[in-house]
Amino acid sequence: MKKALKWIGIGFLAFVVVIMVYAFLGKEQTIALQISKIDLSNVPDGEYTGQYDCYRWSNTVKVAVADHRITDIEIINGPNGRAGIRQELKARIIEAQSTAVDAVSGATADSKAFLKAVETALQNAQ
Hints:
Blueprint: H1 2-24, H2 27-31, E1 46-52, E2 59-66, E3 69-77, H3 83-96, H4 108-125
Antiparallel strand pairs: 1-2, 2-3
């Protein structure tokens, strides 16, 4: 019985370590991302998909453009529990008509990952 509990404890500890490592993999890389400003006058009307893929900071979006303006950003995929951050950034991007917006305070990696996905979608349009 003691041996079984010991192995269960070791297994649980290993699981916790794996989860913690996964939670931080790619964070510094994502925070260091440079987000380019996209010239919307070069973006034709249409819907464009973009993604940023880096462990838990992966995002996929579809950006709608009409008359050289961002009209909508559909969030196809993103980290669980971070929808509020993506919605805030979506509103900021549409209002500014640019990816050159401030990150959400306390969520730099999540913000940069989302902004990079939007940037990639707009770059795919050019």
